[in-house]
């Protein structure tokens, strides 16, 4: 029960912050919504000028939606963590009985809630306004979302570890991570478009399996179950690795006094 | 009492709330805390005194589990914090001027957040009691970041007492308060400490305050305990008029305190 109470504390704190601040509430869905609107019109335009009658909506708008979902999941974890950085709360927080697994559990559940809000808004806009039908992906939508969710969690934990290790200014490493990964993840084009060395990198990124499978379904071929299985396995492995990395960084921070000094460094 | 000659006063096991044995913290070559051993007993307020950089905050951080000792052990009510951190911290709490409550949450929200982290039973009732006790009911829905420093201190103390700690660590709890508020806060802490089973480790640079509230004081210098004793009698044992004179001597000329009643 105590574990649940501590995880609930992290969630409750995030709820209080979001409820009391439009600056926190709006980004949960506004940027995702803007992306869908922008890409919705781009795909509509592409459909209009394309003489072959190919429908770009499932490939492009679907890819944007899935990639935005992954980004929301990652940022859901990091922003909850950054709230403790911004409010200089590490000393108070880590002097409680809260364990690292409880803390990470709180960050992950908080991300599930916030990214679900973003996903719901994107789904409504994409289907109602631009006619994107998720039936075209069939049941494979579930493993797609699962892989992206797991990888988003893993990257979110990695980002938290980097900020904990390198200080509050390392926040600037965090925001561009999805943009840096997107060319390798082959979000909008087939993997074969990439040069060989980028393809090697892509094979290490779980989202690349999702987007390849998505395009495969849209091309009329079945998605490769093995590929998606690899995607899930890779993403789970990254969660384990980044979780261990965060714990290691935390122990380093406790050994070197980084946690104790973090407030002062944040203030500088 | 020169502790290097006679060793620290130890409290019988059953009466100990906190026990430090040969605690060391090194950052490479520099030594922040050097073989410190002492106990805090139940119903005892122990003053941890010393100039800036003497190692007081380092010791408090180690007791709170946010800084790992290089050597030595810390036990809270017999529980080793290195082995059972969560259990040891359940009945421990602290407040410090450098660790304010998150300014983007209201007083109530902060108390609820930390109450859940500490697993406080009957949290809603406990929060109401503390809001009343520290006279911050009117700030219940005010964000902590906009409170005056005195009000923030009260909110921080309310958080420190949320889980009815058996070990309370106070790092300069009255540093930002006016004399009237400081006296009021001191009275509240002493009343809390007077309850069964509570031990307090208190750091302060206000020697008048220390003399009033502490049952025992430990003078730290360069990471070592240099002197230990009753704050009312210790200055005279070293030929000083006041505790403040003794503090200044510890800070400026620690080597001159080589013998009892110098």
Secondary-structure topology with pairs:
The complex is a heterodimer of chains A (268) and B (262).
Chain A: H1 2-19, H2 22-25, H3 30-49, H4 57-86, H5 90-94, H6 100-129, H7 141-166, H8 171-174, H9 177-185, H10 196-203, H11 206-218, H12 225-256, H13 258-267
Helix pairs in contact in A: 1-6, 3-4, 3-6, 4-6, 4-7, 4-11, 7-11, 7-12, 11-12
Chain B: H1 3-6, E1 16-26, E2 31-41, E3 44-49, H2 56-63, E4 71-76, E5 79-80, H3 85-90, E6 92-96, H4 107-117, H5 123-133, H6 149-161, E7 167-171, H7 179-193, E8 199-203, H8 207-213, E9 216-221, E10 224-229, H9 234-237, H10 243-252
Parallel strand pairs in B: 3-8, 3-9, 6-7, 7-8
Antiparallel strand pairs in B: 1-2, 1-4, 4-5, 9-10
Task: Summarize the structure in words.
The complex is a heterodimer of chains A (268) and B (262). Chain A is mostly helical. Chain A has one domain (2-267). Helices cover 78% and strands 0% of the residues of chain A. Chain A is built from 13 helices and no strands. Chain A is globular. The model of chain A has no long low-confidence stretch (mean pLDDT 91). Chain B is an alpha/beta fold. Chain B has a domain at 1-54 and 61-91 and 212-257: P-loop containing nucleotide triphosphate hydrolases (Rossmann fold, 3-Layer(aba) Sandwich). A 6-stranded mixed sheet of chain B has the order 6-7-8-3-9-10, with helices on both faces. Chain B has a 4-stranded antiparallel sheet with strand order 2-1-4-5. In chain B, helix 4 packs across helix 5 (123-133) and helix 5 (123-133) runs antiparallel to helix 6 (149-161). The radius of gyration of chain B is 18 Å and the shape is globular. The chains are: A mainly alpha (268), B alpha/beta (262). Chain A binds chain B through residues 1-2, 5-6, 8-9, 12-13, 16-17, 20-21, 83, 86-99, 251, 254-257, 259-260, 263-264, and chain B through 27, 57-58, 61, 64-68, 85-87, 89-90, 92-94, 96, 98-106, 109, 112-114, 116-119, 159.
């Amino acid at each position: 029960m105590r574990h649940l109470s501590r995880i609930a504390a992290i969630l409750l704190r995030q709820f209080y912050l979001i409820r009391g601040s439009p600056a926190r509430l709006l980004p949960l869905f506004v940027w995702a919504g803007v992306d869908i609107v922008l890409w919705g019109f781009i795909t509509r335009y592409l459909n209009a000028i394309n003489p072959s009658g190919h429908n770009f909506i499932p490939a492009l708008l679907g890819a944007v939606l899935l990639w935005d979902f992954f980004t929301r999941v990652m940022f859901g974890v990091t922003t909850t963590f950054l709230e403790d950085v911004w409010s200089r709360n590490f000393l108070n927080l880590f002097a409680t009985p809260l364990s690292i697994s409880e803390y990470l559990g709180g960050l992950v559940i908080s991300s599930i809630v916030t990214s679900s809000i973003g996903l719901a808004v994107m789904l409504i806009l994409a289907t109602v306004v631009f006619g994107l039908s998720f039936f075209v992906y069939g049941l494979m939508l579930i493993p797609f979302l699962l892989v992206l969710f797991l990888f988003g969690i893993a990257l979110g934990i990695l980002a938290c570890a980097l900020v904990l290790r390198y200080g509050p200014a390392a926040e600037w490493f965090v925001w561009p991570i999805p943009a840096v990964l997107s060319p390798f993840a082959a979000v909008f084009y087939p993997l074969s478009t990439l040069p060989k060395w980028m393809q090697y990198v892509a094979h290490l990124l779980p989202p690349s399996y999702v987007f390849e499978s998505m395009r495969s379904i849209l091309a009329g071929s079945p998605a490769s179950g093995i590929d998606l299985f690899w995607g899930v396995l890779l993403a789970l492995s990254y969660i384990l690795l980044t979780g261990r990395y965060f714990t290691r960084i935390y122990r380093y921070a406790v050994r070197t006094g980084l946690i104790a000094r973090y407030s002062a460094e944040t203030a500088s | 009492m020169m502790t290097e000659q006679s060793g620290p006063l130890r409290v019988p096991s059953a009466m100990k709330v906190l026990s430090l044995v040969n605690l060391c913290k090194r950052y490479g070559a520099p030594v922040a805390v050097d073989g410190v051993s002492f106990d805090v007993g139940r119903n005892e307020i122990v003053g941890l005194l010393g100039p800036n950089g003497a190692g007081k905050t380092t010791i408090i951080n180690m007791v709170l589990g946010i800084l790992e000792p290089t050597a030595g052990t810390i036990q809270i009510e017999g529980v080793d914090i290195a082995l059972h951190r969560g259990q040891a911290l359940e009945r421990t709490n602290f407040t410090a001027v450098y660790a304010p409550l998150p300014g983007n949450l209201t007083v109530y929200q902060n108390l609820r957040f930390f109450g859940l982290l500490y697993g406080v039973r009957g949290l809603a009732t406990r929060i109401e009691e503390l809001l009343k006790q520290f006279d911050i009911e009117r700030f219940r829905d005010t964000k902590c970041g906009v409170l005056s420093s005195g009000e923030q201190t009260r909110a921080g103390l309310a958080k420190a007492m949320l889980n009815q700690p058996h070990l309370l660590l106070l790092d300069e709890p009255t540093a930002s308060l006016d004399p009237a508020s400081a006296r009021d806060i001191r009275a509240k802490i002493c009343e809390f400490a007077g309850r069964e089973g509570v031990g307090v480790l208190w750091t302060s640079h206000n020697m008048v305050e220390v003399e009033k509230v502490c049952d025992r004081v430990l003078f730290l210098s360069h990471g070592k305990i240099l002197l230990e004793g009753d704050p009312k009698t210790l200055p005279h044992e070293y030929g000083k008029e006041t505790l403040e004179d003794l503090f200044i001597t510890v800070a400026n000329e620690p080597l001159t305190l080589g013998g009892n009643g110098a």
